[in-house]
Design a protein that fits this description.
563 residues; alpha+beta; GROEL, domain 1; GroEL; 3 domains; 6-stranded mixed sheet; 3-stranded antiparallel sheet
């Protein structure tokens, strides 16, 4: 009797030991890619896609999103980095480095016979200790303190393109602080980053500016309209100012040329009635999401009214925030509370294109950061840098607790974890000690990127913290002097929220990868095709031995599509 096999012939099993090894190696390889991008002296990466377009960035999360990886463990690392980027907007490279270091030490523990469950328990205990330490050493600040905001932004942006390529670094920092403070409620700690619009145009980086309002990448509809209006009353509409077109085919029976002219005249009369409603409302700027025909443009121009058509819905949303206007529900009945106010509306040429600037009222709830750079690749990088900065300030406003950076907080946490490890019985003690070693990988990578010797830095770093006897001193990597020094007076600070997210995500992903002990994979088949009758199947041999059709002659064979 012939017994069936357990697995189908097109399913492969990797095996227990091989699966763990490949998972650990894949996770480590992904993190090695971005290690050199950490810190103010971090290097940039270049990615060239299938169309030949290149991306230059030092942002670890942005680069890993570009790189296509197939292995599940590597994908887990990329997703973890994206999670940190989405929630806190910073710390992506640190997360990748910590994951890689934890996987490296876990591999060493597995080789000496420590079970996976023991390693995971040790890592979880270390995570609890790290979070407790962060709660003990965090420093409460005033969310209105702009000096703290400047230090946070300088720490975040130092080494980034938008900071290095701009001649006046403080100007960029002040713009970002002003943008965030304009749209946030500092008393309640509420902020919505989407209220900040980012526009990009080619030009000189020194021409980056902040507009207290909205910039629309459109032109004024007619040359007969004014180019500037002060104390503008803005009307936002979601209706078309042009003859109505039926969605289905329609016919009009006309018996004479006179009836044709009457029909056209009636269309113009209806449009003039809408224009009269706009004029009577007092609006002198009309912004429509839909079309505005030439007849209406001419009528509006005679009244000194500016119009803009085909404006994006998101721009209308930003205009509502900036001017206080509400999208008009019915043009035939325009109410005063639907009109918005702007100090000035004007058209200006930026980077060879005309744009309309709507400078908001007294206290606009939406602002626009107009980025300028000499190439599209640097505009994209400036955009990423600006978003990072916005998220850092958002974290601070929502949770105004800080710690000092430059690897000092990692040094304190590693010291605390080592002290706790001696109180733990069993093999978890070794895993906890290796967790402390993994945490130190962040300041060591920082030291390596600024040109310091790694071994010398490690011994000096541990010696500094060993002599404290429980006291808190913020010893970190000074990138200017290339020495280990107290960074509490240097202004290098970070938000506690970022550090908490980095540790939580890194440990969670590491434990998930360690928990996988076997992989079953179905063989990939390229010769997949379908018939016209909808049957989909595949052949290992390319279909050479498969009779696709009935033996009825070539002219009666069904179509066969390959994809």
């Amino acid at each position: 009797m012939k017994y069936p096999g357990l697995l189908n012939q097109d399913i492969s099993r990797i095996g227990l030991q091989e699966s763990q090894m490949y998972n650990l190696i894949s996770g480590k390889l992904v993190t090695e890619i971005v290690k050199t991008s950490l810190g103010p002296r971090g290097m940039e990466k270049v990615y060239i896609d299938i169309l030949g377009e290149d991306t230059i960035t030092s942002h670890g999360g942005a680069f890993l999103r570009k790189v296509d990886v197939d292995h599940p463990a590597a994908k887990s690392v990329v997703e973890a980095v994206n999670t940190v980027d989405t929630h806190v907007g910073d710390g992506t490279t640190s997360t990748a480095i910590l994951i890689g270091s934890l996987l490296k030490h876990a591999e060493e523990l597995l080789k000496i016979g420590i079970p996976v469950a023991t390693i995971i328990r040790g890592y979880n205990q270390s995570l609890d200790c790290a979070l407790e330490t962060l709660d003990e050493i965090k420093i409460k600040s005033n969310r209105r303190d702009k000096k703290i905001m400047r230090h946070l932004l300088t720490t975040c942006l130092k080494g980034k393109a938008i900071f290095d390529l701009h001649e006046e670094n403080e100007k960029i920092v002040d713009m970002i602080i002003e943008a965030v403070c304009s749209i946030s409620n500092l008393e309640r700690g509420k902020i919505d980053i989407d209220d900040i619009k980012i526009e990009e145009k080619l030009g000189n980086a020194t021409e980056i500016q902040l507009i207290k309002g909205t910039v629309i990448d459109k032109t004024i509809d007619s040359s007969a309209m004014p180019r500037t209006i002060h104390d503008a009353k803005i009307l936002l509409i979601n209706e078309s100012l042009e003859p109505m077109r039926t969605r289905t085919e329609a016919e009009i029976e006309i018996n004479s040329p006179k009836q044709m002219s009457q029909f056209l005249d009636q269309e113009n009369i209806d449009l003039l009635a809408l224009v009269k409603n706009i004029v009577d409302s007092g609006a002198n700027v009309v912004i429509s999401r839909k079309g505005v025909n030439e007849f209406v443009q001419e009528a509006l121009a005679k009244q000194g009214i500016i119009s803009m058509r085909r404006v994006k819905y998101n721009d209308l949303w930003w205009l509502e925030k900036a001017t206080g206007a509400k999208i008009c529900k019915n043009i035939e009945k325009i109410s005063n509370h639907e009109l918005g106010f702007a100090k000035k509306v004007y058209e200006k040429t930026v980077g060879g294109d005309k744009m309309v600037f709507v400078e908001g009222g007294i206290n606009p709830k939406s602002v626009t950061l107009l980025l300028r750079a000499n190439s599209k690749r640097y505009l994209d990088e400036f955009h990423r840098n600006a978003l990072n900065a916005f998220y850092v300030l958002r974290n601070f406003i929502e949770n105004p607790f800080i710690v000092y950076g430059a690897g000092s907080v990692e040094g304190i946490i590693a010291q605390k974890i080592r002290k706790q490890s001696v109180t733990i019985e069993g093999k978890e003690q070794i895993a906890i000690q290796r967790f402390a070693d993994a945490v130190e990988e962040i300041p060591l990578t920082l030291a390596q990127n600024v040109g310091m010797d790694v071994l010398d830095t490690l011994t000096q770093f541990r010696a500094k913290f060993a002599t404290l006897n429980g006291k808190i001193r913020w010893y970190g990597i000074n990138s200017n002097t290339r020495k280990i020094s107290d960074v509490s007076s240097s202004g290098i600070i970070e938000t506690v929220v970022v550090k908490q997210q980095v540790f939580k995500t890194a440990v969670e992903v590491t434990n998930m990868i360690l928990n996988v002990d076997d992989v079953f994979m179905k063989n990939l088949i390229d010769n997949t095709h379908c018939h016209i009758d909808g049957v989909v199947h595949a052949h290992h041999d390319g279909g050479k031995s498969h009779n696709h059709f009935e033996q009825e002659g070539l002219e009666q064979r069904q179509m066969h599509h390959y994809y």
